[in-house]
Amino acid sequence: MNGISIIRCFLFTAVLFALTASAGFAQKSYQSDVLKTSGGDLKMTFLGHGSLMFEYAGKVIQMDPASAYADYATLPKADLILITHEHGDHWDAKAIQASTKPDTTLIINQGLVKQLPNGTVMKNGDSKTVAGVKIEAVPAYNPEKQFHPKGNGNGYIIEFADKRVFVAGDTENVPEIKALKNIDVAFLPMNLPFTMTPEQVADVAKSMLPKVLYPYHFGNTDTSALVNLLKDQKGIEVRIRDLK
Predict the structure, then answer these.
(1) What gap in Å lies between CA 76 and CA 98, rounded to an integer?
(2) Which residues pair with 159 in a beta bridge?
(3) Residue 162: CATH number of its domain
(4) Domains held by the chain: number
(5) Structure pTM?
(6) Residue 4: CA atoms inside 13 Å, Cβ hemisphere, count?
(7) Percent of the chain at pLDDT above 90?
């Protein structure tokens, strides 16, 4: 091999390495858990903060899609998008556009009517069946602080065959969520001053008794505090995932 051929070979290898490396940097890996249901596997992917993705029976559900936590152009298009409330860490137009296909259903709370006029509003207490799953909107609010006023934001119970998954949205340990029963998986927010302390999350969990509890939207809160608070609580498995 002459000198020119060696240089060409070197340049080709360098370019190939650079392209491979950049592709690797562009692809973020996300943690996922699988829940067995009577209708098949439910894959729960933890995109970050309040953003989750559920895959079930050939359908994709995006929960609170926000570009700060995932590149939605690299993720599957959604059959259903659920948004809990209007704060910018729970949705943005770029993420919704990247997640949407012609038959995507977009469910929003009342506070997003002006920003997302093509969305279907669910008020607290409403229920409907979309993309093969039943959804119920649950109140999400701060009783005394003004971050999340009562009657505006939603949490959602999503029924995947015989399993009920509750994503609480931004809320405190209010009576409406403490009263929920037969919850298999609960995502409960845990960061002050906007949502709950570990003690408040534990308070909800001891009333609700979910089989699996994921603290989410927890920022810099010490998740080990919640684990310790519930270490003697039988029947609740606390799982910590990358959901800052």
Answers:
(1) 9
(2) 134, 164
(3) 3.60.15.10
(4) 1
(5) 0.89
(6) 0
(7) 86
- The three-class DSSP label of residue 26 is helix
In a domain? residue 243 = no
Location of structure tokens 């534990």 = 202
In a domain, 187, yes or no: yes
Asked if the structure places residue 62 within a domain, the reply is: yes
Distances in Å between the Cα of 242 and the Cα atoms of 93, 123, 124, 188 are 24, 30, 29, 14
Residue 212 bridge partners (DSSP): 185, 237
**What are 183-229's pLDDT values in tens digits?**
999 999 999 999 999 999 999 999 999 999 999 999 999 999 999 99
Domain encompassing residue 84: 3-238
122-134 per-position pLDDT tens digit: 999 999 999 999 9
Has residue 244 been placed in a domain?
no
d(CA 166, CA 180): 9
Q: pLDDT tens digits, residue range 55-67? A: 999 999 999 999 9
pLDDT of res. 19: 39
